[in-house]
Amino acid sequence: MHGLLDGKRIVVTGAARGLGFHFAKSCAEQGAMVVMCDILAGELAESAHSLREQGYRIEDYVIDLADSASIDATFAAIAESGAIDGLVNNAAMATGVGGKNMIDYDPDLWDRVMNVNVKGTWLVTRAAVPLLREGSGIVNVASDTALWGAPRLMAYVASKGAVIAMTRSMARELGEKRIRINAIAPGLTRVEATEYVPAERHQLYENGRALAGAQQPEDVTGSVLWLLSDLSGFVTGQLIPVNGGFIFN
C-alpha cells in the first residue's frame, strides 16, 4: 500500500509534542522520512524514539528559532543527509503569551513572540529553501485567532497574522523555484499547549463551530498531508482554516 508521501523527506519544526508531533507521525505513516526539530531536547528525543520503535524513519535535531546560528547549524546538519521535499513550520511560542489586555501587555514578551513566531519562521524557511527539491511544499502553521481577532492574546494573534501575510509574499518568490508554500489556520485544538486556555474559551469554540465539538490533532493533519503531497501541486499562497467552521475565510 502506497502512502501520500512515499520517498519524500519532510522537516517538521516544533515536533516534540502537540500538533507538531502529530504532523511528524502522520507524515511518517504516509511513507516519509521525517526530520523532527524542536528546542525541547529531552521531549524530542523521547518522541523520536517512540516513532522509531514503531518502525518509522526518523531523524531528530535540536533547534532554537530565536537563534539564527542554531537554525543555520541545524539545516547544515540536515543537508549532510541530502535534499528535502517538504517543510512544516509549526514551532511557535503559544503557551504563556496571553491573558493581558493590550494596555498592560509586556513589550519584552511581544518581542520574544515576534522573534520566534515570525522571524523564526522566515529564517527556517530561508535555511530550508536551498535544500528543497523542485515541486516541494512548505506549510506554515498560522492560527484562526488571526481571522477573528481573539482578545487578550495580541502578540500571538499579530504574529500569526504576519505568518499568513508572509506566506503570500513568499509564494510569489518561491514560485520561481517551483516550490509551493501555503498556510493553515487551525482552531483551538486539544493539545498540551492549550491546556492553559480557560474553559470558557474552549466552550466558545466548541459551541460555535458548524461542526460542533472539540478539535483534535487528527482533525488538522489531513490538510498538512495534502499540502505536502503532489495532489496539491498547483496550490500556493493559500490559507486554509481548519477549525470545523468556527470562522470562514
TrEMBL record:
* First-level EC class: oxidoreductase
Q: Which SUPFAM superfamilies match?
A: NAD(P)-binding Rossmann-fold domains (SSF51735)
One Pfam family, please name it: adh_short_C2
Which EC number applies?
Answer: 1.1.1.107
Keywords (alphabetical) are: Oxidoreductase
Q: What terms describe the molecular function in GO for this protein?
A: pyridoxal 4-dehydrogenase activity
Read off the InterPro entries from this record.
NAD(P)-bd_dom_sf, Sc_DH/Rdtase_CS, SDR_fam
Identify the domain of life: Bacteria
PROSITE patterns assigned to the protein according to its UniProt record, in alphabetical order: ADH_SHORT
**Record carries keyword Oxidoreductase:** yes
Q: Tell me yes or no: is Oxidoreductase among this UniProt entry's keywords.
A: yes
Q: Which family does it belong to?
A: Belongs to the short-chain dehydrogenases/reductases (SDR) family.
Q: Which PANTHER family match?
A: DEHYDROGENASES, SHORT CHAIN, ESTRADIOL 17-BETA-DEHYDROGENASE 8-RELATED
Name of the protein: Pyridoxal 4-dehydrogenase
- What is the source species? Pseudocitrobacter corydidari
